[in-house]
Specification:
2 copies of one chain form a homodimer. In chain A, helix 12 links the parallel strand 8 (244-247) and strand 9 (272-277). Chain A is an alpha/beta fold. In chain A, helix 6 crosses helix 13 (296-311) and helix 9 (167-180) runs parallel beside helix 10 (196-211). Chain A has helices at residues 6-13, 17-24, 32-45, 51-58, 72-75, 80-94, 108-119, 137-142, 167-180, 196-211, 225-238, 250-262, 296-311, and strands at 63-68, 99-104, 125-129, 148-151, 162-165, 186-190, 217-220, 244-247, 272-277, 290-293, 319-321, 324-326. In chain A, the strands form 2 sheets. Chain A has a 6-stranded parallel beta sheet with strand order 2-1-3-4-5-11, sandwiched between helices. Chain A has a 6-stranded mixed beta sheet with strand order 7-6-8-9-10-12, sandwiched between helices. In chain A, 45% of the residues lie in helices and 16% in strands. Chain A folds into 3 domains: 6-58, lambda repressor-like DNA-binding domains (434 Repressor (Amino-terminal Domain)); 63-165 and 297-321, Response regulator (Rossmann fold); 167-293, Response regulator (Rossmann fold). The model of chain A has no long low-confidence stretch (mean pLDDT 90). Chains A and B meet through helix 4, helix 6, strand 2 and helix 7 of A and helix 4, helix 6, strand 2 and helix 7 of B. The first copy, chain A, binds a DNA duplex (30 and 30 nucleotides) through residues 5-7, 15-19, 21-22, 24-25, 29-31, 34, 49-50, 52-59. Chains A, B: Residues 4-58 form the HTH lacI-type domain. Chains A, B: Keywords: DNA-binding, Transcription, Transcription regulation. Chains A, B: This is DNA-binding LacI/PurR family transcriptional regulator.
Chain lengths: 331, 331
DNA sequence: CCCTTTCGAGAGAGCGCTCTCTCAGCCGAC
DNA sequence: GTCGGCTGAGAGAGCGCTCTCTCGAAAGGG
């Protein structure tokens, strides 16, 4: 009781296997009545092409890997960003009938697995989400002669086209907003300095502060809520008179708000807070969080398009998307 | 400049293709020195087996589909549950060297796509996450003669083994806690009644209220934060004297807390609140949310094991995991 | 009316692998 | 010394599909 093959379809329709194949693949050089006969046979037999046989000869698989190269327990489940990227990329790939193979590359052993898998030709291309500077995967994959694109600029210089948002510009937007509101002592909770987002957002902060003749007050977190709370306490200890803080992502900003509340500071009256990312939760904090929005969905979509472009021999130029300040009540 | 084939490996090692294949697949009937010669050839050539050719003959693909059958915009990105399930399932499948193909089946057209894909034999089995009663996918997939398991009991009776938590028992735990605390007017914000979780949690609530001689006060939400806020306002309108509310999931509970705050009710002094799910955010609400925890990671892991068991001809019995009350400050 | 062009359909050679069948060689046993 | 059994290796048939090449027939031009 096997599945019907193209051979069976051809036999039933009274044509050759080649002709049946032509119909299945939508070639136009088939006479209408023959085409109909084949389609009828396909329908009656419930024929579905065998993808393994097909990709054996075409050398294509019509699926792409989405590699999330982060310790999954920490980032993946907590940060809604990942779900959004995965969802948007899936939706976009669906439109061109390609599948997403999801791979989590957390440990060194899974790195090896991913490499082997990609090298095996299971997929036509790779979308890589990796923010850590120390990550060896971008370099390893770029050596594999498989089309690779990255969500976010790779932290190490490597020849992979990427789609990113304007982290520096976004941070500048945020800090300029605080300056314009007359804040004098503007601190920042920076992200990890081995991540591009962490670096660039700190750069933006520094640039604006320098230009507006203010002193920088920096604490460093690791993009988790908890680290934001800790960093905020530290900042308050370092400079009890600070009147604003730019936090490099919303998750840490939520933690910072918590610490400010515990320290008896009113937001925004005593301390103004601006975050970065505009995650869902930013709307529901007390008070609602002013933050820098970057177009996650568009970025994911652009990444998919970039990869599809690569398949066709298109250009491999990075794409940078603009950011936007969303003013709520926290600043 | 093609990739090396098994033929090339065999030639270099001076053996037949069959012997090279034996080495690659770890068969023991190969003499040590020949085995070493083959391994050396593999290493020198950088040989990686072609998965399409292999699965053409073995009829296996070593990958499984994870089908998320929900309108993705609404549930997927907002509910951290999904990320956790996806992550846990991926990690578990990694241990047996199988890949996850992620498929979002939101619209009718994507349902068809998923069906075609599964029918095409792209994957060895399917893990289905579908909570909606009206969803035709579980029934469709169960007809396909492919091993299928479900995360959560399918809403329509269909012959698919599943892994679920004890929704009824969990709700009873929550409501009994409120009764024990001396609450008299215990309302509930139920989930959608076309979802199993929605139904069962309401059943649990009703059972305990009946047994403890209290009147039930019900509003229905759709598991989103927003709907929780709306339902809470409605409940306060219906019965301003209510002193407790059991909310069928944490996301709605967060919305409910917001409405309670806006209505000037203190939690838990005026109104006690118990949620369900124990999502990350439950720890960070004002006040921290008392809720029913169910083991999401374990459930996902059990689902994978169930599917792997099916591959080996194992039993197809549903698995029900216990729930646990996490007491924080809201009740 | 014949030859060339075009169009539609078939034949058949692979794609790279697994796996059964076959067989050579070597051992021990009678 | 011969024979049976067993181990290790090769030959070769497919898995189901695509795609080039070939060819017949119909159509059009000289």
């Amino acid at each position: 009781m096997r599945r019907p093959t193209l051979e069976a379809v051809a036999a039933r329709a009274g044509v050759s296997r080649a002709t049946a194949s032509r119909v299945v693949n939508g070639q136009t050089t088939v006479a209408p009545q023959i085409r109909d006969a084949v389609l009828r046979a396909i329908d009656e037999l419930g024929y579905v092409p065998n993808p393994a046989a097909r990709s054996l000869v075409t050398q294509r698989t019509d699926s792409v890997a989405l590699v999330v190269s982060e310790p999954p327990t920490r980032v993946f489940s907590e940060d809604p960003l990942f779900s959004t990227v995965i969802r948007s990329a899936s939706v976009e790939l669906e439109t061109v009938n390609k599948q997403v193979v999801l791979m989590l590359a957390s440990s060194a052993s899974s790195h090896a697995r991913v490499e082997r898998y990609i090298a095996g030709g299971h997929v036509d291309g790779v979308m890589l989400i990796s923010m850590h500077g120390a990550d060896p995967l971008p370099a390893a994959l770029s050596r594999l002669r498989v089309p690779v694109v990255s969500y976010g600029r790779p932290a190490v210089p490597v020849d992979i086209p990427y789609v990113d948002n304007d982290n520096v510009g976004g941070a500048e937007l945020a800090v300029r907003h605080l300056v314009a509101a007359g804040r004098r002592r503007i601190a920042t909770i920076a992200g990890p300095q081995d991540m591009i987002g962490g670096q660039d957002r700190l750069t933006g902060y520094r640039t604006v502060l320098r230009d507006s003749d203010r002193r920088s007050i920096v604490a460093v977190g690791d993009f988790t809520r908890e680290s934001g709370a800790v960093a905020m306490r530290q900042l308050l200890g370092d400079d009890p008179d600070l009147d604003a803080v730019f936090v490099a992502n919303d998750l840490m900003a939520v933690g910072a708000l918590q610490s400010l509340r515990q320290a008896g500071r009113r937001v925004p009256d005593d301390v103004a807070v601006v975050g970065f990312d505009d995650i869902e939760a930013a709307q529901y904090t007390e008070p609602p969080l002013t933050t820098v929005r970057h177009p996650v969905v568009e970025q994911a979509t652009a990444m998919v398009r970039l990869l599809l472009g690569l398949f066709e021999g298109g250009p491999a130029d990075p794409v940078i998307l603009p950011t936007e300040l969303v003013v709520r009540e926290s600043a």
